[in-house]
Each structure stands twice: as structure tokens, then as C-alpha cells.
Amino acid sequence: VQLVESGGGLVQPGGSLRLSCVASGFSFSRDVMSWVRRAPGKGLEWVSSIVDRDVPTNYAPSVKGRFSISRDNAKNTLYLQMNNLKPEDTAVYYCAKDCTYQSDYQLSCVYQGQGTQVTVSS
User: Fold this and answer.
1) How far, in Å, are 33, 72, 74, 80, 112 from residue 27 at the CA level?
2) Tell me: the pLDDT tens digits for 102-122?
3) Terminal CA-to-CA distance of the chain, rounded, Å?
4) Which of 69, 73, 90, 120 yields a CA-CA distance of 20 to 30 A from 41?
């Protein structure tokens, strides 16, 4: 399994970014895919997940209405469109699969990429 993210960067509050994740080594179209993030000094946080185009997507309350997850199964690519970014969105964003909450309520993912840094600052 290989997950390679791109698209992060420095953006001003209110700005937008689009993250991409190219997947390989497994049946991408059949798997639930997620975006998760880790802010400085904090644990892994679930952002959004997608099954397929016919199933409603899910978002963390902190990003709902601002972020949009999508996938292109023909390209084995996962996307995260992030609009109206806020300083609290600053984090390393990871494309991930097979994520669960452990007994200590910490999120853990079996597979995740190397991450892409998103910094929201004026």
C-alpha cells in the first residue's frame, strides 16, 4: 500500500487549498478512504471519509461546510477541497485507510501517507 499526498502549503485565513492523494498497491475503488490530520502537539484527528459516490460523505464538525472530500477511482486519487481555511486548520494532513479508534479514544490508521503540511496564517 502506498499513499502519496500533495497540495499543501501556506495560505491566508479565508483561503483555499486542494489536497490530492494518489493511491497504489490495493483495490482503491473498493476501500473507504479518509483524510486525517495532526496539529502541532496534538493527536491524530479524523477529518472526513468517503465510500463511493452513492453514499453520503462524513465530516468532522470542525470542517463541515468548508471541506469537501471526493475521489476519482479511474485515477486512484483521493481529494480534499478546503475552503474558508482557518488558523486552527493548520496541521499535517494525511490520506489514510483502515482507521479506527483505540481503547484510549485515540485515532489510529493502519495505512497513511507521509503527509502534506497545511499552514493557515496571515
Assistant:
1) 11, 13, 11, 20, 15
2) 888 889 999 999 999 999 999
3) 37
4) 69
